[in-house]
Structure formats: structure tokens, C-alpha cells
Amino acid sequence: AVATMAYVINVIHATGVTLSSDLPSPQLAGVPVTFTAAGQGSSNYYYRFTLTRSGQAGVVVQNWSTTPTWTMPGTTLAGTYYISAEVRVLTSGPRDAVVTVPFIVQ
Fold this sequence. Notes:
- 0% of the residues lie in helices and 49% in strands.
- It is an all-beta fold and 106 residues long.
- Strand 6 and strand 7 (97-105) form a beta hairpin.
- The radius of gyration is 18 Å and the shape is elongated.
């Protein structure tokens, strides 16, 4: 005999994400700065970080992973940057939330 059972999987998506840095903007070139993202509204988050220099296309600097931190290297050139952190709770698929913060390297 074969039995079937119906079930529903409810995914509680992230409702937001915050992004902070261990050092304030602006910082001098040569100083590494660590950014930490924190998902909100769920658990077991995956994060992706993108770095965009003002006037240029963004570059994914850390692809989807459970690591909530990314360090901007001390070799980053002087300029105005935008650091974005995306969050999702599934291993694949679209992001649930994104936040972008400006950061100046002098």
C-alpha cells in the first residue's frame, strides 16, 4: 500500500537588514574597514556584499554565504563608495532585503 501526505513548508523571509562598520567614515586609504550585516525578521541568513565606487558599476566582493562580514581592503583607493548588503534565508533565489551605506576613503 502507498500512502501520500500533503504538507506545507512556510518560509519566513527576512524583513530587513542592517549594515554597520567597525570604523567611521571617512577613513584614510590603507586602513581596512570591516562591515557587518544583520538580517532581521527570520533566521539562518545568507549575505552578499557589493562595493560600488561613485560613478562606476558595482562589484560583488563577497558572494552569497552565511558570513555576515566583509572587510574592505586597505588597498582600496581614495574615493566615495557605496557598500550594499543583501540578505535572504534560502540558499538560492532572490534577495529578501538590501541596505546600502556610503563610505569615504581619503
